């Protein structure tokens, strides 16, 4: 399929570094479009609808889940990518796949599995997302995983410990983990997904936090980024109040951050003038970024949310029960592998098999499985 002409610094599926297992080209889709489609049709992607973002699935129908978060990241990424001339299909593929390895119960689940696996290589959700697309999905006759392009896999591996980077590098020299060992950056499309992830988090956690009643809009007005756009919304619509005022404030916040990223990145690209994607990867810092002022404002909002929402006593109480659920399940499986499905029970790396199976669970399946294994009803 013919490639769309893009700026030299943008990824181009026609010049992809390829798949781990070579496949014939598709007649009607680019390689990055194929990746996007494979991700959407994966089992792991469907499970995201019942995985926690901040609030558990049963706590309310309108709170974000990992699925809705991933869709919002994809939307923001495509909008920004279009303005910068980037490959939107690659942006979307990375955005939709970036949380595939997340555990049930959000970061609480990751922390529990990392602790349970401390003597067996630990657990990193970004690395787990890569494991999902490289090996754990079992949909194709010719290979395990989804056999995605290098560029998509590169974007999925957002963070990586040095130990795990060395392990990946040993099996894939000069591949997706090299930058964690020797410096450098991923593609602009991957950089964009990292930033779109942050923008989406901040916006929807403000919405969900107020909707839940755990934070008040008046508290949020302590944060400069919120206060500025709340005032602008009221100046434009003096009679606005309640949910519509909150939504208008968030909409303006999102727009301001998006335009800031576009303007700042254009200036950075003009200054650096990367001649191709290889030059982008050779940079010592990301070219896709906020201005210094917007970075400070975004960080202040993240700190507010951490202190007032993520550490709220009600959220922490739920976290404690979630940690108990997953720890009990892991211990039960590790003690008796016959409790696992056959394709996991038969593996020689029992602890990793336990972590892989648990990481793939939805919140509600984990709750049901915990009741089956222990008889406890924590939720």
From TrEMBL:
Keywords: Hydrolase. InterPro entries: dGTPase, dGTPase-like, dNTPase_2, HD/PDEase_dom, HD_domain, PHydrolase_assoc_dom. Residues 66-202 form the HD domain. Residues 1-33 are annotated as: Disordered. PROSITE patterns: HD. Signal peptide: none annotated. CDD domains: HDc. Belongs to the dGTPase family. Type 2 subfamily. This is Deoxyguanosinetriphosphate triphosphohydrolase-like protein.
């Amino acid at each position: 399929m013919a490639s769309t002409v893009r700026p030299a610094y943008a990824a181009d599926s026609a010049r992809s570094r390829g798949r781990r297992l070579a496949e014939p080209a598709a007649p009607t889709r680019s390689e990055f479009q194929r990746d996007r489609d494979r991700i959407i049709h994966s089992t792991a992607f469907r499970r995201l609808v019942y995985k926690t973002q901040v609030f558990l699935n049963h706590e309310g129908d309108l709170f974000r889940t990992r699925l809705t978060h991933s869709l919002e990241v994809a939307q923001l990424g495509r909008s920004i990518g279009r303005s910068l001339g980037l490959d939107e299909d690659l942006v979307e593929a990375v955005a939709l796949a970036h949380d595939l390895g997340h555990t049930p119960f959000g970061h609480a689940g990751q922390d529990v599995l990392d602790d349970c696996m401390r003597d067996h290589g630990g657990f990193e959700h970004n690395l787990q997302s890569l494991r999902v697309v490289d090996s754990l999905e079992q949909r194709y006759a010719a290979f395990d995983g989804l056999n995605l392009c290098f560029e998509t896999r590169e974007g999925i591996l957002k963070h990586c410990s040095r130990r795990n980077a060395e392990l990946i590098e040993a099996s894939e020299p000069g591949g997706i983990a090299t930058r964690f060992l020797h410096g450098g950056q991923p593609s602009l499309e991957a950089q964009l997904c990292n930033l779109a992830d942050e923008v989406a988090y901040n916006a929807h956690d403000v919405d969900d936090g107020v909707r839940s009643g755990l934070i008040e809009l008046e508290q949020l007005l302590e944060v400069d980024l919120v206060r500025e756009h709340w005032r602008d919304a009221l100046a434009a619509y003096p009679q606005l109040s309640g949910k519509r005022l909150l939504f208008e404030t968030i909409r303006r916040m999102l727009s301001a951050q998006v335009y800031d990223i576009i303007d700042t990145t254009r200036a950075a690209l003009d200054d650096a003038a990367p001649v191709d994607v290889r030059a982008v990867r050779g940079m010592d810092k990301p070219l896709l970024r906020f201005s210094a002022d917007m970075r400070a404002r975004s960080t202040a909002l993240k700190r507010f949310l951490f202190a007032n929402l993520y550490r709220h006593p009600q959220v922490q109480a739920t976290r404690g029960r979630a940690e108990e659920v997953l720890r009990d399940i892991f211990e039960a499986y590790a003690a008796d592998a016959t409790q696992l499905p056959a394709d996991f029970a038969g593996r020689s790396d029992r602890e990793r098999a336990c972590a892989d199976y648990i990481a793939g669970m939805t919140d509600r399946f984990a709750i049901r499985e915990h009741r089956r294994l222990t008889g406890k009803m924590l939720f």
